[in-house]
Design a protein that fits this description.
Helix content of chain A: over 70%
Order of helices and strands of chain A: HHHHHHHHHHHHH
Shape of chain B: globular
Radius of gyration of chain B: 21 Å
Distance between the termini of chain A: 33 Å
CATH topology of the largest domain in chain B: D-Maltodextrin-Binding Protein, domain 2
CATH class of chain A: Mainly Alpha
Structural class of chain A: mainly alpha
CATH architecture of chain A: Orthogonal Bundle
Number of strands of chain B: 9
Number of domains of chain B: 2
CATH architecture of the largest domain in chain B: 3-Layer(aba) Sandwich
CATH class of the largest domain in chain B: Alpha Beta
Distance between the termini of chain B: 34 Å
Helix content of chain B: 40-55%
Number of helices of chain B: 15
Strand content of chain A: under 5%
Number of domains of chain A: 1
Order of helices and strands of chain B: HEHEHEHHHEEHHEHEHEEHHHHH
Largest sheet of chain A: none
Largest interface: A-B, 32 and 34 residues
Oligomer: heterodimer
Structural class of chain B: alpha/beta
């Protein structure tokens, strides 16, 4: 039985070796060596330099804000979806997934056209004599882009968790005299924690590492740590520094995972 | 470095097993790596028809993004079209092949002498490169939004153009603007001068709408910004599309650049690459390219074929460089210089 399972896992083992383990080893190797191949921690310590630290701080700030906004938007929606089982719920979910059929880059570019100074939204606003919207090329536009692109990753796990909650548990709470608010905080919210955790991770991690959204909607004025790493590889051709900073970023992602895991444990 | 090679070999092995299915004749091709929108696509077709050599065409956006790909050997290329300072870097790092001009007869007969002389600055002895396009960097502004004559880089620091300014999102071009503003050399490595330049660019940042490369063109045509830094060749195109746009070379001087064809030392199809460059140097071909991309051609044969007098005497396409002071060409800053510029640029961008 066991050996059969092992054989079935072989394709994935090969896949993860070639596309996950080897690249990861290469990042560690490059990140911990200098141009001559000697061991160094300089590439990791480089995070402390003014430019890098600022970019990292801004990335963390923007991705935390985006994750919070995503959560606040997604939770009520997921609750409505979970209640509306059947056709109506399926339709709303379809509406949600529909934009994901289009390429991520195209959707972000579309936001650029919408938000531009002479863009669609400002065209409509000025038609009605309203003041124009000036958020393109600022951090606000980047947060907007992050929320827009990553919201489905928050909604779907929450929806999964919420729809799995047994109706009888909620009814029992009501029978025992809990009002709606008490039921929510003492029953529904704790039971949806696994969904919250995976939702947060699935939004926070891509938001922290993105460089496309900040380039397209930030006009290259707002430099995130993802942009710094991308530029080290594609422009400065300093793979060592790029890898070193990637390692730092990975550490932050691991910290995020540990914190959320501890939180989950505490809830249980 | 070995690990890197191992990884590339694996990738190449995987890719080549996938790629062979096309059934094309792999020998008779030339792999070209050029700037985006920097050639008339009909000319590639014509080259294929005339010579029977298939062109595999790839594009890059800046010299800086091109170089790591070529250096790492991540992709195979034959002919590339880098700019002056990058050619000098590639020569120093032994990436380029010495050209055999007997196989590229059109180059010596059609390219003007002054451009060969100018090339000496980055390619001493004219051994490695054949000029393809040249031009200046200047300010493009919209006459309906700017109601004063634009003459100086300092106007890009003017508070009244807040959120209307477009800067180039490439290290050398962004630094050049500030360096010329203060009268420094655009190749300076002086710490004090670079500090001043850095602070100037940081001071300018709140006024800048966006740092862009090719998008300067579309944004200026679409009235999205009032004033921007642009390459002369792009300026002519934008004027076709939006007649309110005006191009000036600021009084403090600017960068005069040349983009030239080079062949890589390890190019798999060197003969075809020579044929390709020779074809591009033909007067009629260079003319078609000039008409399509509107970047100034160093090809005298092509220039004499231009019928439109207005274009032929255009101060943007063919400026009389002798009337400008302080014109300079970028030189390769060396590895340390490159790193220094990159560090400063990151500080500016993250500010």
């Amino acid at each position: 039985m066991n050996s059969k399972k092992n054989i079935l896992a072989a394709p994935y083992a090969v896949w993860s070796a070639v596309f996950i383990v080897i690249p990861l080893c290469m990042i560690l190797y490059y990140g911990l060596t200098d141009k001559t191949g000697a061991f160094t921690l300089e590439n990791i310590a480089a995070i402390a330099s003014v430019g890098h630290a600022r970019a990292l701080w801004r990335s963390i700030l923007l991705s935390v804000i985006s994750t919070i906004i995503c959560f606040l938007l997604a939770y009520p929606l997921a609750m409505i979806l979970a209640e509306k089982k059947g056709r109506a719920g399926g339709f709303i979910i379809l509406l949600f997934i529909l934009p994901m059929w289009m390429n991520f880059l195209l959707r972000t570019l579309a936001w650029q056209t919408l938000l531009e100074k002479t863009g669609v939204i400002n065209g409509i606003l000025s038609f009605f004599g309203l003041p124009s919207l000036r958020i393109i090329n600022t951090s606000y536009a980047i947060v907007l882009g992050m929320v827009y692109n990553f919201l489905p990753f928050m909604v779907l796990p929450l929806y999964n968790a919420l729809s799995k909650i047994d109706e009888n548990v909620i009814n029992a709470a009501k029978d025992l005299g809990a009002n709606k608010i008490q039921t929510f905080f003492h029953v529904i919210l704790p039971l949806s924690v696994p969904g919250i955790i995976s939702g947060i991770t699935m939004v926070f991690v891509p938001a922290l590492t993105t460089f496309v959204i900040s380039t397209l909607l930030g006009g290259s004025k707002v430099l995130l740590i993802g942009n710094v790493i991308e530029q080290e590889f594609t422009q400065a051709s300093n793979w060592h520094l790029g890898s070193g900073l990637s390692i730092v970023l990975m550490i932050f992602i691991i910290i995020n995972m540990i914190v959320t895991a501890l939180f989950e444990k505490a809830e249980n | 470095m070995n690990k890197m090679w191992a990884f590339f070999l694996i990738t190449i092995a995987i890719l080549s097993t996938c790629g062979c299915g096309t059934g094309e004749n792999n020998d008779n091709v030339v792999i070209v790596y050029n700037w985006g929108e920097y050639i008339d696509p009909d000319m590639l077709e014509q080259f294929e028809e005339e010579t029977g050599i298939r062109v595999i065409y790839d594009e890059f956006e800046t010299n800086e993004t091109m170089y790591p790909k070529v250096e790492a050997g991540a992709a195979e290329y034959d002919v590339i079209c880098p700019s002056d300072y990058m050619i000098s870097k590639m020569i120093q790092n032994d990436l380029l092949m010495e050209l055999d001009f007997d196989h590229i007869p059109n180059a010596k007969s059609n390219i003007g002498t002054q451009y060969w002389q100018q090339s000496e600055g980055f390619d001493p002895g004219n051994k490695y490169s054949v000029p393809y396009c040249w031009g200046t960097v200047g300010i493009l502004y919209n006459r309906t939004m700017v109601d004063e004559p634009v003459t100086s880089w300092a106007q890009l620091w003017d508070e009244k153009y807040r959120d209307e300014i477009l800067m180039q999102d490439s290290v050398r071009d962004a630094f050049m603007v500030a360096e010329k503003l203060y009268g420094y050399s655009m190749n300076t490595l002086d710490a004090q001068e670079l500090l001043t330049v850095k602070n100037a660019l940081i001071e300018q940042k709140p006024l800048v709408q966006a740092y862009v490369i090719d998008q300067v063109r579309d944004k200026m045509i679409g009235n999205e910004a009032a004033i921007g830094v642009i390459y002369s060749g792009e300026a002519i195109y934008t004027q076709y599309e939006n007649s309110n746009l005006e191009y000036v070379i600021p009084a403090e001087g600017t960068n005069v650049w040349i983009d030239s064809w080079v062949i890589l030392k390890n190019a798999p199809h060197q003969e075809n690459a020579e044929k390709f460059i020779d074809f591009m140097c033909r007067g009629d071909v260079a003319l078609k390219n000039f008409e399509y991309i509107t970047y100034s051609t160093p090809n005298d044969a092509a220039k004499s074929l231009i019928e439109d007098e207005e274009i032929k005497n255009s101060p943007i396409a063919f400026p009389d460089l002798s009337q400008y002071d302080n014109l300079e060409t970028y030189t390769y800053l060396g590895e340390e210089g490159d790193t220094l510029y990159n560090e400063l640029w990151k500080e500016i961008k993250s500010y």
